[in-house]
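Example record

Each entry pairs one chain with its bound ligand, hexanoyl-coenzyme A.
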Amino acid sequence: SQRTVNTMSIAKSEYLSNAWANGIFANRVLFITGGAGTIGSAQTRALVHLGADACIIGRNVEKTEAAAKEIAKVRNGARVLGIGGVDVRSFDSLKAAADRCVKELGAIDYVVAGAAGNFIAPISGLSPNAFKTVIDIDTIGTFNTIKATIPHLIASAARNAPNPHPSGLTGGRFLAVSATFHYTGMPLQAHVSAAKAAIDSLVGSVSIEYGPLGVTANCVAPGAIAGTEGMERLSSDLMTQREKDRGVPSGRWGTVRDIADATVFVFSDAGNYVNGTTLVVDGAGWRRQGGL
Ligand code: HXC
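Structure tokens for the complex follow.
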């Protein structure tokens, strides 16, 4: 539809601000689930633009491989591997993908758990299996992603000690894509709210268990982000975009760049001491629950 961002070929200004220095992720590797999605591909582009190689994981083989090819174009010499046919609900296939990433690209220094599932339904319209499906994709999928990649993140953190590394380069960083619905509760989103609350909690535990090894684990919580599949599904057709923008205290919906920039911050040398927290990037939308 009209509002969907064309993730295939977008200008640098659409996925990255001018705040960052080129090369800050040189010789580093990103492993991202949901990396062919609208937000995930912007996060990947931003890191690749700034020097990283990347491995993007998705269920759909064609979509994942096509996205990897397109993203590789943002920097000469970038290596972007697309591994399709991987469902985050399967630990074994995620582990095989992580092992392949390390074999082909040499390491996993940063992980984004971005794969998610969503639909609109009241609790009365949610079968037990519908509820379970979203918990499986979001919460169990995030657990499986952590479990499959944590040995590589520990190794990366060890290579990059002392922290902050004198070169300014970083490694050993985990970021889950959460949401803000569970701060207040959200009608028609009971399943997603529960799944994301569990993700926040899980990431907190990761930060405590692996912080002593130099790994950081955080969440980014996007608000209403324009052009995403999630907002296509969630947002009302009865309001104009101006009305929707006015519902957010900052006066507009977010962009995928807002989330990509937040990701760069958390993974950069500037984010060294940010651990076990959620960076909410929503223009204060959740405080008014008006962003939708
Ligand atoms: C009620 C529904 C439903 C709906 C599916 N189900 N859609 N129930 N209303 N609209 C039920 C099914 O009937 C079934 O239950 C169960 O959910 C599983 O459905 P399947 O189709 O078998 O599941 P699957 O093929 O695994 O697909 C998962 C999915 C699908 C979540 C349903 O939509 C998907 O793959 N989505 C991935 C992409 C996506 O959702 N992206 C948006 C992410 S946005 P029964 O009982 O019949 O067996 C996001 C952001 C949230 O997460 C926050 C925004 C700010």
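Strands lie at 29-33, 53-57, 80-83, 110-113, 173-177, 216-222, 278-281.
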